Predict the 3D structure of the following.
Amino acid sequence: MSYNNAVSSGDPQAIEKLTEKLTKCEKLQATMKEVNTYWRKSGTCQGAPGLTEAQAQKLDTKMAAPRYSWETQPFASYDLNNNNAEIRLLKTRIAEITRNQEVGFAGWEFAGGTAVAETTLNRLQLFFDERPDKDKTILLKRNGFHWSPTEGAWQRQLNDNAIWAANNIGFLKPGDGRTVREHQPSIPDKNDRGAR
């Protein structure tokens, strides 16, 4: 099991890639459970569903002389637990990205610049007319914004937290007197996302 193929939330195909990873993890979870059940009943992995003959042989060899006392089945409890945790994480990320896409975050004008909700990159980007002074730079960094030379903007991942952070930075206040939060569409409650 390898989970090091990270998928960025800013990837335009993030939902498709995460869904593909989720499907693989769910299939793996089902296979591990079936193999463990099969092994408990038959004492071998040969003929277990979802395994090649070579994989079954490798697991049988492992179970013939387990390295640790807690290895009482071909796939240990921690294998199942870790994979199940990955499944939960993937489901959460898919729901969060879907929710952020549905919200339709909006940008605004502030004194000395513009805030852009860049949905393609999944970033809240801040473009300043002039380079921010040291105090503003420190405040931006403290609130999770980072300078992107390639974009020519201060930015952070576009989500509720980005809007909340921008709302708390005084010099980013919209020029029309409203708050940053008031410029955003009605954001559905995170707890309601499963009800849709």
About this structure: Residues 14-42 form the longest helix (29 residues). The helical segments are 14-42, 53-64, 77-103, 134-142, 160-167. Confidence is low (pLDDT under 50) at residues 192-196. The longest strand covers residues 113-118.
